[in-house]
Amino acid sequence: YTQQLEACNSDYQAKNIVDGILTELKDDAWAKKIFQDWEGRCQKDTDFIKLAAIVNDRIEDADWAKSLLNKAAKTGEGAVGAIGLAAAANDILKDSAWARSLFEGVGEKCKNRNDYERLFSAIEEKTADRELLQHTHQIAADKLTSSKDLVYLAESVLRRFKDSDWARKIYEKALGAGDI
Can you tell me the distance from the alpha carbon of 179 to that of 88, in angstroms, rounded to the nearest whole number? Predict the structure, then answer.
């Protein structure tokens, strides 16, 4: 296994080698050392998220996985990174409270309807939390200013909540936008 590790050139190969070490040799300490070395090579939020999933799955160390996700939070950028982190907290750690708090903070990083749609879809897919979904729609309604973004948001309100009164208020804001 040592020779294979020295020759491997991808995280995927390293994960497979560690699987062999855990399965055949049952050497948790060696596997943990390999993951620690891997952590030292992580640079982007997605690197930390990927490793967190593997650490949680292979050696069942939820505390370390959470630490890795916290490092991902420090390296991630923009709404897409924040959405990925919140989804990872939900999927990897099954920590719905932390995931909810992370999703709540994403709205401040969203810049346009595309960012908000990613957020809305992730909340629906990962949490099914209607209250959180409604809250993030309200943040979007307060923050968005372009007519195109607001029209999209009104359509999202109609599609997701069937609330024509709320949608009407957003359409009115769109009519008052300065870019029509």
Answer: 37
